[in-house]
Amino acid sequence: MTPGAPAAVVAGIGACLPAVVVPNEELVAWWEADAEWIRARTGIERRHVVSPGEATGDLAVAAGRRALASAGLGGVDAVVVATGTPDQLSPAVAPQVAVRLGLGPVAAFDVGAVCTGFLYALGAAAGLLAAGTARSALVIGADAFTTVLDPDDLTTRAVFGDGAGAVVLRAGTAGEPGALAGVRLGSDGARHRLIEIPGGGSRQRATGQPVKESDLYFRMQGRAVFSQAVTRMAATARDSAADAGWAPGDVDRWVLHQANARILAAVARELRVPAERFVSNIATVGNTVAASVPLALADGMAGGHLRPGHRVVLAAFGGGLTWGSAATVWPDLPTPPPPAVPETTPVEGPDLTEPPAAVRRRSGGGTDQPRGR
Question: 23 has which bridge partners?
């Protein structure tokens, strides 16, 4: 990008995690699994889970409020929410987030690209700024993904957690700290079945047949997804670095979607860069889907691993299949406080922190093994 040309600039950041924490030891108690097996396979030690009545919109509002405060702004011209778990099928959650934040009748819409959603939302918001439609935008990645997991499947319950992260973008110029460069987005719909929730949409409803309960839960073909994630994230991240004029060795910090610790290690090997340059918080939050990249950014800042002046590349891969990346020189922002807790009053509903029904039904000393173990 030509120095001095119009650009979208990162101006604030915020994060939110639900209060309830589920460590591996609780999963072990439910499934008679091995806590070390979970950690070794995924790199995850614990994850945050929404309580009854908490939803994606609650997480998004809390993270958005923190990001606005970080930027020193009372309002923005647009709100873009990336999520795979909106509060309802229709309407989008973004307009509700905007009104709860007191932002007035601003442009507000959702982006659905699952784990790549935050990068797609950044691209969409940057486009609004480039077109002059907005001078500032709040971009939020938020998911309560534990609400769409099969309660009897350890292979997904061990991996995913809930949360939200947000950044504020303002109109600025290329070359200044925080200016986004090399925004790359891609997809491969031919492989959409690798990551999906089959039921609940118009395709299933148009059959006129009752939906199977199992079709309402998230499914993933792990081995094939692993290969695609490594290949696609490494390629798009390398392209964004090149767009910014950097070789992989010039990049100070890589902030990638926190899907699995082994995927991050494989991407580092693919790029031939030290793993120490990768920001990672997967051990404490798990895979938070669209919230993953902004949560890692906030955590990297809070821990001192991400500092002003660092050359940073963001990248993600998710359902669709989709992938995306962007580059920036990290700006001097206030160190984010610990993630906010959702601002909601829990209502009567299922407790996602309780062991699944199949486990509760077992008598002591059951022999069932978790799927995929």
Answer: 46
